[in-house]
Amino acid sequence: MELLFLTTFGKAFVPKSLRPHLHEFFEKTGREKVPYESFGILFWIGAVLTYFVYMSQVFPYLQGKAPFVSFAVSFVVFAALMLCFIFTFGAMWYFYLTMQIYNRTKEMEAKLPDYLTLVSTSLKGGYSFEKALWGAIKPEFGILAKEIGLVSKRVMTGNDVTEALGAFAMKYDSPLLRRSVSLIIGELESGGKIVDVIDRIIENLKKARILKEEMAASTLTYMIFIGALVMFVMPALFALSFTLFNVISGFLGNITSSMASSPVSAIKMGKPSINPRDYMIFTFLAIGIISSSSALIISIIEKGNIKSGMKYIPMFLLTSIGLYMILLKVIGTIFGSILNFG
Length: 342
What we know:
Elements: H1 2-12, H2 19-28, H3 36-58, H4 67-124, H5 129-135, H6 143-156, H7 161-171, H8 175-190, H9 194-218, H10 220-261, H11 276-303, H12 312-339
Helix pairs in contact: 1-3, 3-4, 4-5, 4-9, 6-7, 7-8, 8-9, 10-11, 10-12, 11-12
């Protein structure tokens, strides 16, 4: 009953014009239905978080204000917070689903040469193209086997095999998959020797895989260099700069206080105008941005695309920020005797 309520509630917030696109998107993730209950859960999580933030941070400041002002401010703030939470969690969910689709696509591309090899073997053994296509479906092919199974269901329900294969190729954003299926469809429509085309596709796919592995191996030195700079050198430099900032601030503070008590002070000095807390926030933001960007750069060097580097971002962030906090303690302890801080 609760799940049905969440499903109905979530579906009410999704415009009808977007529902077909959502269905296509979630099909790529392996889901047959759109999880409208997740939209309902997302809404209620945003509402609860908005309520707690509003009551703890905004409501106390509205005490004693005019009723109209309180209502207007409450409405605007509540709506803004609600949209902010929903957008943030929705973006995180979309990112997760996009990476899931990307991983599924890469898995199919990796299994495609082995699958086509079985298809070619069956064709050489005298099977028709449809029987060879269905007979090559094996559990070890995982997602590719499931997708070809869906193609077979479309063919059994009256669709042409070329149309079903074309829909399968266009379903995923994979140039390799689309080119391979397009060549097979073209040969089927022209009535040529499909076995020769499949064998050439298999050979080209294997050559492309070997070239990618060689390219990744040749750029390994650059990836190690960038990774070492980001995860070890950068946190050390930021920790050292923050410690030196505190040391200089302490020296200037001592000099200022001693000169203020002196009867003769011709030079006026003061502490730096930068707040140490603001500087700390800046270092964390800088480390986060640099680490994330470096992970994406390494992905471009290694794989030739950005999406494959998303999995490196948590590792880079955790390593660089963790080392930064450790070095802050270590370097602060070493220099602490100078001004008795750390």
